[in-house]
Known about the structure:
Layout: H1 7-16, E1 21-22, H2 23-30, H3 35-44, E2 49-54, E3 57-62, H4 67-77
Antiparallel strand pairs: 1-3, 2-3
Helix pairs in contact: 1-3
Amino acid sequence: MTTTVTKTTKVLNAxxxxxxxTAKQMASRFGVQNPTATVSSIRRLGYAIYGxxxxxGTKYRLGTPSRRVIAAGYAALGRAA
Length: 81
């Protein structure tokens, strides 16, 4: 039995392992055609992906959301934290 790993999963695994990736790196290493959409889909899965701008472009990384961000999420859902 073979298991197919999607490009999004490959990018997510790289983030989980602690790597920071630019859009160009996602495109060249994983064949992602639209890195912004890939990052957005990972965010919709509930992962806190942050973009840090630098001279070489935006580097994306997996981070831990602050308590303030979590509280805002609960407020948006209409629940008390």
